[in-house]
C-alpha cells in the first residue's frame, strides 16, 4: 500500500518536474535547462520516505529491511513505470516505442527495488544517514537514465547490464538479513531436500527406469 501511494506521488512529481522539462529541452533548443535542484529534492524525499518506512518496529524486529525494501521498491518502481508508460503512449507507434514500454515494465520496478533493498541493507548495518544519501544518489542516476531512455532507446544498453549485475549482488543482501537461526534451519531444509532427491534417484519406483 505504501509503495503504491508513495510511488504514485514519486512518479507524478518526477515526470512533471524532471522528465517533461527534459523532453521539452531536447525537442526545443530554446527551452530552459532542467533545474537539477528539482531532481535532487524529489529523489531525496523518496529516499527519506523509504528510510522512515523501513525504520518501523516490525521491520527492524525481523531484520527485514532489505526484503521489505525490495517489496516497497517494486511497488514504487511499478508506479513510476506506469506513469512513464502512460505518458509515452501519446506518441506515434513505432518499434522503439514497443521496446521502451517493455523495458520500462520489466526493469523500472526492478531498478527501484534494488535501490530500496540496498538502502535497507545499509540500514541493517547501522548506516542510517549513509543509506539516505546513497539512495538519493542512485535514484538521481535512475531518474536521469530513464528520462534519457524515453528520448533515446539506446539508453537501455547501459541500464539493462547494470541492473542484471546489481541483481546478483542483491542475493547477498537478502541472505545477510536472515537471522542465524533462520540460516541454520534453511541449511537443514536444503540438506534434507537434497537427501530425499538423491534417494529418489537411487531408488526409483518398480517398473520405472531412473531416466
Question: Features of this protein?
Answer:
211 residues, mainly alpha
Can you walk me through this structure?
- Helix content is 82%, strand content 0%.
- It is mainly alpha-helical.
- The protein contains eight helices and no strands.
- The chain has helices at 2-27, 36-54, 57-61, 65-88, 95-124, 128-151, 156-176, 180-202.
Give start-end ranges of low-pLDDT stretches. 207-211
Strand count, sense and barrel status of the largest sheet are:
none
Order of helices and strands: HHHHHHHH
General shape: globular
> Strand fraction band?
under 5%
Using the CA coordinates, give the radius of gyration.
Answer: 21 Å
Quickly count the helices.
Answer: 8
- Euclidean distance between termini CA atoms: 48 Å
Roughly what percent helix? over 70%
- Could you report the average pLDDT, rounded to the nearest whole number? 84
- How does the helix and strand content classify structurally? mainly alpha
How many individual β-strands?
0
